[in-house]
Design a protein that fits this description.
Blueprint (H helix, E strand, L loop, with lengths): L2 H24 L11 H26 L6 H8 L6 E2 L17 E8 L2 E8 L10 H17 L3 E5 L10 H17 L5 E5 L2 E3 L4 H4 L3 E5 L4 E3 L3 H8 L5 H5 L1 H8 L4 E3 L2 H12 L17 H11 L16 H8 L6 E3 L7 E8 L2 E8 L10 H16 L4 E7 L6 H5 L2 H14 L4 E10 H6 L9 E4 L4 E3 L3 H8 L1 H11 L1 H20 L2 H5 L5 E2 L5 H11 L20
Parallel strand pairs: 3-4, 4-5, 5-7, 6-8, 7-9, 12-13, 13-14, 14-15, 14-16, 15-17
Antiparallel strand pairs: 1-2, 2-3, 10-11, 11-12
């Protein structure tokens, strides 16, 4: 072939190639799209089959136990169509050997706010945690810290993968490390929806709130079989670590749910009062004139709910409900240490933490469990910027050897540490009485509260009048009894009690020295609290704190 023939041929083929490019660019519908390619179609069909088989297997195993699958739980918890799953096929890849791991991780929204969530899949190796599962949870926690968003863990696992040995145990340690790093920075909520045993129990125990279902949840470090083998004690899983036990006796569980739907709804309820992180404000809610009028009207009846006699019991939860927005008080650990009430509420659309002595149980005394319950709650509120409103009606600490031996000194000191180190607004209202050391620790002015008020007739003293008279006038009363009999002694005791009450335990002395800012009528309580919170809205801690790594408060 001559040169001219080659040149002509090259020009012809070059022109055809250029034409093909131009056609492809100008008319993409003439070229195969990647979405319609054989590879994409095959991938789509393969993954659909893998996912369907996995979910069918999960449905068969979980529904037979009356439980939802891991993904059904996430769908129930989150706003519709907001879940972004991360790392679904970590450990296997998405090829011919693709299979989901034993935990589902990702991000979604609750009431429009972003959260991180992981849900253990009991249908995959009993939800056991190994290297893959641990890596996914650790990554999620790291992402949540970077994004400053709450973390919700849905727990349903048989524990560590035995076959992985120390590798699985290592993953628990990494999760504990990240959970501790997130503590006080982002809210963390654990929902126990099945077994949680061994070292795995410490992961939810490190979080802020633990929710468990009444029938299906079990938590214990060592299970019934181990207990029986080591100690000879025969005990059921329910008796050892059921939700009721942890909700009432140990205090590990903050809310005992009737079922999974109730448990997941409680997560949404709690988050409604909490900020997404410690460096953000809690949500504020619209509060109109109509609502304000209704709530103010309800608050006027609060005085009728409290008996005048300091010895007569009443339900302080009803008192709080009469004072807060919409009458809504979300209690935390309601069944544990019921002699103190803690929970969340709002005043004119602003979330606050509530602490109150409960006269219905043990006269509202403080004991070891109540002290730890309210101390940790105050510390939580302080960490996340929630004001604390305290309602006081306390006769003192519960006496007795059992309390002393259980460490009431050490545990009661936790309450002091919580209030004394808190930097959020602290408002305290004494309803009827506040005696001795219990007065000091329950948000007194001396310990650091911003505003302190009391109702008329409130008794503030080292001891109640009867007890004080019995000590101060012991010899005089004995002499009266010896000389004039028991009736005369009783009459003299009553006279001295009234005299002591008028002279010592009425609120005038506390007002005079500035421990009480004002005596207020019961019907004005809500207004005073609202105005106090408004005054403290921009509070910034200005107390001098010398450089230190951290305090060494009792743990």
């Amino acid at each position: 072939m001559r040169w001219c023939e080659v040149s002509i041929s090259a020009r012809i083929w070059g022109g055809i190639a250029l034409l093909m490019v131009l056609v492809t660019v100008a008319a993409p519908w003439l070229a195969p799209a990647i979405g319609d390619s054989a590879a994409t179609t095959a991938f789509r069909e393969h993954i659909a089959q893998v996912d369907t088989e996995a979910e069918d297997r999960a449905v068969a195993r979980q529904h037979a136990k009356g439980k939802q699958t891991a993904r059904e739980r996430i769908d129930t918890l989150l706003d519709s169509d907001t879940f972004l799953e991360i790392g679904r096929y970590t450990g296997s890849g998405a090829g011919k050997d693709a299979r989901p791991s034993g935990v589902v991780t990702g991000f979604g929204q609750i009431d429009g706010r972003q959260v991180a969530v992981y849900s253990q899949d009991f249908s995959v190796s009993g939800g056991a945690l190994g290297t893959i599962e641990g890596d996914k949870i650790v990554r999620l926690l790291d992402d949540a810290l970077r994004l400053r968003i709450p973390v919700i863990g849905l727990i349903d696992s048989g524990g560590a993968k035995i076959q992985e040995g120390v590798g699985a145990l290592r993953q628990y340690g990494r999760i504990f490390n990240r959970t501790c790093a997130a503590s006080g920075l982002v809210p963390q909520i654990s929902v126990i929806l099945g077994p949680c045993a061994g070292g795995a129990v410490y992961s939810p125990a490190l979080t802020d709130f633990v929710i468990a279902t009444r029938e299906a949840s079990h938590m214990f470090v060592t299970g019934p079989d181990v207990v029986r083998a080591v100690t000879g004690e025969s005990i059921s899983a329910e008796e050892l670590g059921g939700a009721r036990i942890h909700g009432r006796v140990s205090g590990v569980v903050h809310y005992v749910a009737e079922d999974e739907a109730d448990a997941l709804e409680q997560v949404r309820t709690l988050l409604a009062y909490l900020p997404s992180s410690a460096d953000q404000d809690a949500p504020r809610y619209d509060y109109d004139t109509t609502t304000r009028t209704a709530d103010a009207s309800a608050a006027t009846r609060v005085g009728s709910l409290v008996p005048a006699s300091s010895r007569q019991a009443y339900d302080v939860a009803e008192v709080v409900a009469a004072l807060v927005d919409h009458g809504e008080l979300v209690q935390v650990q309601e069944d544990f240490a019921p002699n103190v009430v803690i929970g969340f509420a709002c005043f004119e659309g602003r979330p606050v933490g509530i602490v109150a002595n409960q006269p219905l149980h043990d006269a509202g005394t403080l004991d070891v469990d109540a002290s730890e319950k309210l101390a940790r709650f105050v510390r939580f509120c302080d960490a996340f910027g929630l004001p604390v409103v305290t309602f006081v009606d306390v006769p003192g600490y519960r006496p007795g050897a059992q309390q002393e031996h259980a460490g009431i000194i050490r545990r009661g000191a936790k309450v002091i540490n919580a209030y004394a180190t808190a930097t959020v607004p602290l408002v305290t209202v004494i309803l009827r009485k506040a005696y001795g050391g219990a007065y000091i620790v329950m948000g007194s002015k001396a310990i650091g509260a911003d505003f302190n008020f009391c109702w008329p007739g409130a008794e503030i003293a080292v001891l109640g009048a009867a007890g004080a008279v019995g000590i101060i006038h012991r010899r005089d009363l004995k002499a009266v009894r010896d000389e004039r009999g028991e009736q005369a002694e009783a009459a003299e005791r009553e006279r001295l009690t009234q005299e002591y009450t008028q002279a010592v335990i009425n609120p005038d002395k506390a007002v005079a020295i500035g421990e009480i800012d004002a005596v207020i009528a019961p019907e004005d309580t809500r207004t005073v609290i609202v105005d106090s919170l408004a005054a403290l809205a921009d509070k910034r801690d200005s107390r001098h704190t010398p450089p230190k790594k951290h305090d060494n408060g009792p743990l």
